[in-house]
Amino acid sequence: RQHTEAHKPFRDSPNLGERRAGGTRGMLYRDNPAWADVTPVPQDDGPNPACPIAYAKEYRDAMDYFRAIYSAGEVSERALALTEDVIDMNAANYTAWQFRRKLVAALGKDLTEELEYISEMVQENIKNYQVWYHRRAIVERIGEGSAELAFTEQILEEDAKNYHCWQHRHWAMERFGLFTPPDQGGLDFVDRLLDEDVRNNSAWNHRYYVIEHTVGFTPEVCGSEVDRTLDSLTKITENESGWNYLKGICAHLPRGLLTFPRIKQVAEASLPNARCHVHALATLLDVYGLEAAEGSADAAAAARELCGTLSEKDEVRVAYWEWRKSQLPA
Asked: Which among 93, 141, 172, 255 has the fewest CB atoms less than 10 Å away?
């Protein structure tokens, strides 16, 4: 069904109570003459609900009318406005988002305006999967995603480890080929994040992702990345993210961690303070294990001794370190 009269969304105030507090602007849907032709559909909790949710009356009212138009498949401006109200009260309502995408397409709405709307919603709900999925869908329909790098940087300035934001950034870069110089998809931005928090595993992961999709892990690139990471680890040794990044880089080389002697030197420097440097010693164990596999009896003995140290200092993973010891050459 097509309707021309729209129920204006309540977007001019950040507070739900203010948006629905009196007057025609604040009336419930059941009291609005523009919706008199719609029979609301209440939520069916069964005859004897064990623990019914105490919804706010505004949300219950809006959802009763949403179910009605959703079931009828109504395509109208008022239906689109209703999705905005429902989403404003519960941004995790995936059915409302799905219906909104359908309406935006069917009504031929301006996608640039919808992108502006979802930009506001993302900023208000940055940890909500539904808002990020909606943004992705709209950007996909627009067919141009160069603005996504700047947008995700803005969000990450506020929440540098936001999984949904990093996932969206990866998608946009891969979908629209945003791995171009001079910044190679944002390495300068990643460096800034790591300068602020060197333990930001998301930033380390993104650095790996960008290099993988640009220059690749050539021996020269690996050497440069290893030096950069070790410089960081000499300042903050017990940084699991940095040690894991090293292992990921060296996995691209035939001799792995043995390619760069400095890795062993930096890791061995943590031996006097074993309790505080478990991740450094775990990497050192990997180095000793590789040397033992190449026939070094001294390395095998050092590895067995280190397994004992790790079992003592890292009590949560005692069984793991004992297993690692059992895998070493006799």
From this structure: 255
CA-closest candidate to residue 9, choices 66, 68, 73, 70: 66
Q: From CA 125, how far away is CA 241, in angstroms rounded? A: 27
**pLDDT grade, residue 181 (50/70/90)?**
low
One-letter identity of residue 235 = K
Catalytic residue numbers read: 127
Q: Are 20 and 28 in contact (CB under 8 A)?
A: yes
What CA–CA distances, in Å, run from 316 to 121, 208, 276, 320, 322? 42, 29, 14, 9, 12
Phi/psi-derived region of residue 170, left when phi > 0, alpha when psi is between -120 and 50, beta in every other case: alpha
Q: Which residue has the tokens 């050539």?
A: 218
Percent of the chain residues past pLDDT 70, beyond the cut: 90
Pairwise CA distance, residues 251 & 239, whole Å: 19
Least confident among 81-95, 149-163, 170-184: 170-184
Write down the pLDDT at residue 6. Answer: 35
Cβ–Cβ under 8 Å, residues 83 and 103: yes
What's the rounded Cα separation, in Å, for the pair 327 and 186?
41
Rounded Cα gap, residues 108 and 270, in angstroms? 63
